[in-house]
Amino acid sequence: MGAGGHTTNPPLQRKMKNDENLKRVPVTKPPFTLGEVKKAIPPHCFNRSLIRSFSYVIVDLTIASIVAYIATNYFFTLPRNLFLLAWPIYWAIQGCILTGVWVIAHECGHHAFSNYQWVDDLAGLVLHSCLLVPYFSWKYSHRRHHSNTGSLERDEVFVPKKKPQIGWYFKYLDNPLGRFLTLTITLTLGWPLYLAFNVSGRPYDRFASHYDPYGPIYSDRERLQIYISDAGVLAVSYGLYRLISAQGLNWVICVYGIPLLVVNGFLVLITYLQHTHPALPHYDSTEWDWMRGALSTVDRDYGILNKVFHNITDTHVVHHMFSTMPHYHAMEATKAVKPILGEYYHFDGTPIFKAMWREAKECIYVEPDEDLQHPPPPSAPPRHIVNHHLPHLPHPTPQR
């Protein structure tokens, strides 16, 4: 079942036919192999440099430290009007910088940081724990996401609902206020709810949590590392408790807490938009294969933040094909594979907040194509579901 079905919004379908950003991604088996794609990439792009990787960590942490130093030593001396203006600017800048740190820790989980697994795990554990992320717990579930991307049955996150699964209450959110509230909850609480309660994650037959070593997400050989992840988060939490005792709750919230909310919001937004698009397919077990799943992602443009986020935003397609490739080679690799991928590569340059609103409004649920034996050509109007009366909470996810 590639995604698809009918549409209840003919104007949108006409728009999709004319908008290159919304052109449906082909769902037929690609005419190229992973090996052929890899040959198109310069060999040095797969080289991991420990020194270069650590240089990005040092730069990010140095900038974050300078920004925090300025905030904690000078903001309190400003006049009230400037004081109230300075803190939101700090939160935005610090949140973006720390999102870049999060991305580097994510690379450690993919063994894209260095040639030494223990170095990657140690660096990832420290960096992710400082951002209250259980490193090994997320590493293992995220690895399964990469192994099953685009699968309606086995993908770990961003799995769209089928039409019969849409609850009656969703129709009450089909309005601008409802979508705004849905997106606000998703961007602020989505990440901690996913970690703690597997909200929006793959359904399991019993309670699943990234903090539970004996939960269904993990195998027996992974349980020790889950304990280590929990210990890392607890250690940082205790450090924050001591910091609150020394500096006060308001100080910690302003300096650390709100920037962390910005990090969590960007994390959800980035990953949501990488896997949520009106042109992207999902597949059931009769059609899914790893290559088509890896190609069911989209690169986005965040402007200057592409560099701040170490290009996780605009090189996600190649990342899903070669996840051990370091981020500092991903742009060159993306440029190299575009001629090979052709229509199977998807980039959408729609402004981010406009795209976020569009996806929340249009990407609701999935149904099978009406004619699996004779699928329409890639240039045909997409037949994914865009039912405006059944918005999907908290992660509206598209399908062809």
UniProtKB/TrEMBL annotation:
Q: Which GO terms describe its cellular component?
A: membrane
GO biological process terms, semicolon-separated: fatty acid biosynthetic process
User: Pfam families, per this entry?
Assistant: DUF3474 (PF11960), FA_desaturase (PF00487)
**Superkingdom classification of source:** Eukaryota
Give the taxonomic lineage as stored in the record. Answer: Eukaryota, Viridiplantae, Streptophyta, Embryophyta, Tracheophyta
The name this protein carries in UniProt is Fatty acid desaturase domain-containing protein
Q: Where is this region: Disordered?
A: 1-20, 369-400
What are the UniProt keywords, alphabetically? Fatty acid biosynthesis, Fatty acid metabolism, Lipid biosynthesis, Lipid metabolism, Membrane, Oxidoreductase, Transmembrane, Transmembrane helix
Q: Which residues form the Fatty acid desaturase N-terminal domain?
A: 19-64
The pathway noted for it is: Lipid metabolism
The Fatty acid desaturase domain, residue ranges = 86-346
Give the main localization category: membrane
- GO molecular function list: oxidoreductase activity, acting on paired donors, with oxidation of a pair of donors resulting in the reduction of molecular oxygen to two molecules of water
Tell me the compartments it is located in.
Membrane
Q: Where is the composition biased (Polar residues)?
A: 1-11
Q: Which family does it belong to?
A: Belongs to the fatty acid desaturase type 1 family.
Transmembrane residues, as ranges?
A: 54-76, 82-106, 177-197, 250-273
Does Chloroplast show up as a keyword for this record? no
Q: Is this entry keyworded Cell inner membrane? A: no
**CDD domains per the UniProt record, alphabetical:** Delta12-FADS-like
